[in-house]
Amino acid sequence: MDDALLLQVVEKGQGILPLFAWLSPSYPVGCYAYSHTLEWAVEAGDVGDEKTLVAWLRDQMTLGFGRNDAILLSHAYRAVAAGHEAALVNVNEIALAFSPSAELYLETSQQGRSFLDATLAAWPAPGLLDLDGEVAFPIAIGMAAAAHGVPLPITLNAYLFGLVQTLVSAAIRLAPIGQTTGIRVCSALAATVRDVAQEAITLSLDDIGGATFRADLGSFHHENQYTRLFRS
Predict the structure, then answer these.
(1) SS3 177
(2) Where are the alpha helices (DSSP H) in the chain?
(3) Which residue, among 153, 126, 165, has the nearest Cα to 27 in the 3D structure?
(4) Please, are residues 176 and 47 in contact by the beta-carbon 8 Å criterion?
């Protein structure tokens, strides 16, 4: 963290403290119930050990929903910071529309709505707007961070690394890896998270796109798996 950003955090009072609450496993968003197609990837044999999990997650961060979420979060953050409600509604609609399947739509909309409801109740702020209906998860995070003055670069890094940790937790429950391996996977992806977060700040909504076709199609197959631990 450079000196200017550190000073900004200190001057905000609470600084990054809200992020520790919002991205905690105890925050009532239900993230533990979703695997973002990882459950299907394990059954299909795409993910079966540390190496394949790192590769799968890195693709998701750089070529799939991680990068897109970071772009969307950035634009939601700026819309709230500018008090531009129409822009916020627009980026939320785009975020929901980019869900590749019904299961992944449920994943982002349920977590987003739950996050926003909990944050409005427990962490209110004058600039934190409510949105009617469904809210995509990265949009809700961006809204809260902007309203509380949490710096955008820190928010992006924390959000993306939270995604990695959530999926690693799912992988541990699916049994292809153990806890120590899970820690190594998180460490291996830290640089990727930083790179994606840094790039996303500079990108427009026109830069949204993905190339994780197998994972996206896997979300359609997930509902037909014989046994399921997760909702996606």
Answers:
(1) coil
(2) 3-11, 17-22, 38-44, 50-63, 65-81, 85-97, 102-122, 137-147, 152-174, 179-188, 190-200, 213-221
(3) 165
(4) yes
Q: Name the maximum alpha-carbon separation found in the chain.
A: 53
- Which tokens hold the place of 50? 């540390």
Return d(Cα 185, Cα 162) in angstroms, integer: 13
State mean pLDDT over 192-213: 96
Amino acid at 139: I
CA distances for 89 relative to 94, 107, 136, 170, 225, angstroms:
9, 19, 11, 31, 35
Which residue's entry shows tokens 């200017």?
4
More confident residue, 196 or 11: 196
Average pLDDT over residues 167-188: 95
| 53 closest CA partner among 158, 213, 167 | 167
Q: Which residues are CB-contacts of 4 (< 8 A; sequence separation ≥ 6)?
A: none
What is the structure's pLDDT at 118? Answer: 97
Q: What's the pLDDT tens digit per position in 37-57?
A: 999 999 999 999 999 999 999
The pTM (predicted TM-score) of the whole model is: 0.93
Listed residue (3, 224, 222) closest to 232, CA to CA: 222
